[in-house]
Design brief:
0% helix; mainly beta; two-stranded antiparallel ribbon
Amino acid sequence: MGDFSYAQFEPGIGLSPTYLTFGVSGIRLNGATVHISRFKFESRRNVVTRNSPGDANTVRPVFETVGTGITTELNVSEGIPAIVGTTSSALSDGVLVVVVTVNYSGKG
């Protein structure tokens, strides 16, 4: 699953698309907890790394994709928010905290 945002998460960077992707696999009920054998979260953003000469004395920006993410196994209790992990990027002084809450309708 994926989405993107134009939200300005850092001051001075401007509005640049940030691509957010997450996926889960191997979900099973394990007693009072939900076991997720693979949880993956990724955040990617295109950044200008340099300028290149263009046509007729113009300058063309050169982009590079910069990403960060978390891949892990989880055991979480229903309805209780759980911190999956934290991640940061060289483009930011901030830290992204990934939190999940699991709700399921069946009781076994």
